[in-house]
Amino acid sequence: MQKQIKILLTLLTVSILAVSCAANNPNNPIGSDNANFSKLKKNWIDSYKSVYSITENEFKNLYLDNNTLTYKVSYSTSILEITWNPDNTSGIIYGQYTVNNNNQNDNGKYYAISFQGLTDNSVSISGAGKFVNGSYDSSAETLEEAKTKFTVENGYFSFYSDCTVSK
């Protein structure tokens, strides 16, 4: 009888661990469970032919190299968290730079991308950045700093690119 109780307790423990770990999957950013996340996960293109590629856990900005006529990565971030506004069509994507060809010193630091007006076929996108004391500021040392620093109210999202789904 004791052996059966031990087996039952072991199975119960394993089941509890499996359920608790599934809820904290590190491959699924916070906020990716929003019903509109599937609308956001697309390749978007603006009037300047810049492409914004959003996947389950990565945001990439690509530009068209006029010399080679190929797209190259401007910057890329791993998505860590998405905060959705109550309208469910806007919010901020927080991530960590994996590549920043505009400023190599930002690699490994934190960044934010604002989006608004999300529909099945369009969205407006703005990367965080502004001049502070004569220098362009577009990174934070920690995710917590990025979340308090990169806000609309702080003036970090002043220009939005109107995008449509890239074919």
Features:
alpha+beta, two-stranded antiparallel ribbon, 19% helix, 167 residues, globular, eight-stranded antiparallel β-barrel
If you had to describe this structure to a student in words, what would you say it looks like?
The protein has 167 residues and is of the alpha+beta class. 19% of the residues lie in helices and 38% in strands. The chain has helices spanning 2-22, 37-40, 143-149; strands spanning 43-45, 51-54, 58-65, 70-84, 91-100, 110-116, 122-127, 130-132, 135-137, 161-165. The strands form two sheets. It has an eight-stranded antiparallel beta barrel with strand order 1-2-3-4-5-6-7-10. A two-stranded antiparallel sheet has the order 8-9.
Quick rundown:
The N and C termini lie far apart (64 Å).
Q: Helix and strand succession?
A: HHEEEEEEEEEHE
CA radius of gyration is 20 Å
* Beta-strand content: 35-45%
Major beta sheet, strand line-up: 1-2-3-4-5-6-7-10
Average pLDDT rating: 86
Distance from N terminus to C terminus (CA atoms, Å) equals 64 Å
Briefly note the structural class of the backbone.
alpha+beta
The total of beta strands comes to 10
What is the count of helical runs?
A: 3
Percent range of helical residues: 10-25%
Q: Could you describe the largest sheet, including whether it forms a barrel?
A: 8 strands, antiparallel, barrel
Low-pLDDT sequence parts = 3-26
Global shape: globular
